[in-house]
Amino acid sequence: MVKRLGAILLAKRLTSFDDVARKAPRVVVYNGTSKADTKLDQPEGAGYAAGFKNLVQFVMGQLPQNEVIEGATRKEHKLVPDIVIRELIANALIHQDFTIGGASVMVEIYADRIEISNPGEPMVPGNRFIDGYQSRNERLADLMRRMGACEEKGSGIDKVVNAVEEFQLPAPDFTTTHHRTVAVVYGHRQFEAMTRADRTRACFQHAALKHVVRGHMTNKSLRERFGLGEEKSALVSQVIAAAIEEGLVKADETVGGSRRLARYLPFWA
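The structure assignment produced for this chain is given below.
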């Protein structure tokens, strides 16, 4: 067990150890937005701690540029900020289910999004990732934390959502497929181009993020999250109403029925 854990963390080449060789993270880059045209398919051969920094740098180097207008200036940025990639890769590595054979952490890069997935269904429901935490591999998480690759206390998803909000990107989508947990992060998209699901998911995550820091979501805070002016208050109210209808958020009844003072909570609060 010690030898296996040491190899997972520190091996120069995981393929040198038969029992963990298939656990090397795999990076796949596609041309376009589907799997139809693969540009690159490459496993990361080093152990998780030994190769973590290089893995993150390699993934960042493969991300497409995204053109964003800031004020009157047109600027080029990577599709998503590096802290998002760092935290999601670390999260996938330490929360994977090692009992599932022939499966590894995957980073799939498309023209408009990145999908980071790991073997195993999550121990915490996807809609509780922001406030909930339970480690599947406690020793691995502890050692990764000591080596500076992750934070065992479970603040990684909070950091991801916070960074996404700061860059006003569409909300990440956390889903579960057959024996696999998938985190999808999207490149910049104007509010008008977001789907209803994009908007209500962002509303829920914003409410959850506010709640865990003892704050509250309001129409104003959600407008700022989307980068919208005060004239868009009615539109944002529609997003909140849709999120309430879907059972994602609820009104904070402690402030009464005043629309001016209205604030909102995630459904689980």
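Interim note for the steering committee: Residues 2-186 form a domain with the Heat Shock Protein 90 fold (CATH 3.30.565.60). The chain has a mean pLDDT of 90.
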